Structures are given as C-alpha cells and as structure tokens.
Amino acid sequence: YLDSLSYFIEFEEVVAVIDFRGREVGRLRVQVTPLQLAGVDLMLDEIDQQQTKSLRDYIGENYTFTVTIVGCKNLPAESCSNVYVAMSLPNLEASDRNNAGGGKESETIGNRFFETPKHAHDTIHPSFDTPITINVTITEHMCDALSTDMVEFTLHGSKPGSGHSIEEHLIAPKIGTHD
Questions:
Q1: 113 burial type by CB count under 10 A (0-12 exposed, 13-18 middle, 19+ buried)
Q2: For the CA atoms of 36, 139, 28, 133, what is the dihedral angle to 10 degrees?
Q3: Mean pLDDT, the chain, integer
Q4: Residue 138: which of 66, 68, 67, 57 has the closest Cα?
Q5: How many CB atoms lie within 10 A of CB 13?
Q6: What pTM, to 2 d.p., does this model score?
C-alpha cells in the first residue's frame, strides 16, 4: 500500500470495511501524498529528474508525506454515532543496531498510531478529510517496509443516541502490496 511512496507517487484507494464476522459493512477512502524529499517539494514536481533514482539513494534524508483518511460510505446504521478511524503505520523508522549479544535489535522512533476526530453527527457516510503528516528519515528498513508492510485501519462507532463510544469492532483490512 505504501509502496507508491518509494516512487514519489500520490495514491488513493477505496477499501472494504470488514466486521469481525468477515462481512463487508462499508467502504473506507484513503489517500497517500508524498510532500517533500530531502528539502525538495514533490508537489511542485521539482524532483522530476530524480524520479529515476531509487529511494535508497536518499538514505539519511528526510521524507514527508500525508495519509488522508477521506471518509467512509455505507456503514451500518447501528454503529453510525461517534465514528472515528484509528490508523497504525508499519514501523518505518526502525534503525538496526548491533546489541551486546551480537544480534540485531530494532529501535522504534516516532509515533505510528493516529486517530481522526470523532464525527460530530450520526451518519452512515462520515467524512473526515483528516490529513496526517508523517516526517521520517529514510533508512534501509524503511525502504523494505514500504514494499512489504501494511497499514491497518480500525473503524470505531457506537449506537445512535447512546451518548458514548462503544467499539463495534469494524475493521478495514490491512492493506499491503502483496498480490
């Protein structure tokens, strides 16, 4: 899913929302937009000649992108209050370092978990348009993770009129690049 970031390409996808029984109960729209790489504004196409390079050529450089949770469609009416989406990114900034035992130890840097604000109205079609900006330093691990790891979205909602959030265990699938 995030593999498009390896090529500095904007990407948008609509995915099925699956409940705990494996049934499709709605749709989730997500957009990924690369913004800046090594100080170059990707939105202005200033990297045109650089696009033929590999992301690995930028190891140690900063990379900024957004993941925008646009909205959902056709959610169950019994779970359409206080709807919000939680997103878990793969660990993009693990840095491998040798530990005393001679093996490798993974170190996590930065936040990988994000949530949209709760939708203000009861609706089966909540719109969030919530851009989440992520700024990472490119590592070998990140280059590998973009092509193999997945983003996980969890949709939360409660019964209309309940006045409090009750998780309904609605889960959008983990989205990966696996064919």
A1: exposed
A2: -40
A3: 80
A4: 57
A5: 12
A6: 0.76
